[in-house]
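WARN no homologs supplied; continuing
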Amino acid sequence: MRMSGAPATPAALPTDAERVRSILAAAHSMTAVTDGLRTEVRHLDGGDPMGRLHLHPAEPGGHAEHRPPIRLEFTDVAPTPVRDRVRARVTLVGRLLSPYAALTPDGYGAGDGDGTCMEFERSVLETADGFSYVGLDELDAALPDPLAPYEAGMLTHLLDDHPDLVTLLLRLVQPLPAAPVVRALPVAMDRYGITLRLEERRGHRDVRLPFPSPLDDVEQSGAQIQALFSAARRRSHRNTLPA
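OK structure emitted
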């Protein structure tokens, strides 16, 4: 089990807190679990739930036992048709400070428009690497990735309209795959770079292709992506996709 903190490669990966905020920012639905009931909440419209879901520190001394516990579940699914499309899961656990009736299948905080207040206990990020815990101070300090609301459209556009450029990016993969690659698809994009999923006959692996510098705004993405393509064209080795 790994704990929240700095990424393994500085300035090349989002922190766990950034990852959680980005998943929330791009979410179009979630599952709310309270009183033994599961409610599918849709139509989040990609707006950051942190703007309508107000997280408060837990009261000292555990004086909130009378408040109903609640668990909010978010699933991060790759927008491209890769193997194992679930990239991550985020769970927020706490207790309701406003009535559960404010949560509806069409949104939450729908009663008075002010959102839902929740006493925060913990947030859990689950990825292929394991579980990590992100505290409230970390969530408050982190910002969602600037590409998070646009990532799905950008990746599907790249795959559907420019598949030759996806193949081109394979030239940047180091070291070269030991086994033949059956298919290579973009599986993720954030302010630090693009991730390709290399699918082999047995299994798959993900490869990060970092941008020359992290993005501060989505408008910078075009130049950084083009820089990756230019770097790939300068590489001479052949990709391992079948002809």
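Residues 116 and 142 are 20 Å apart (CA to CA).
OK
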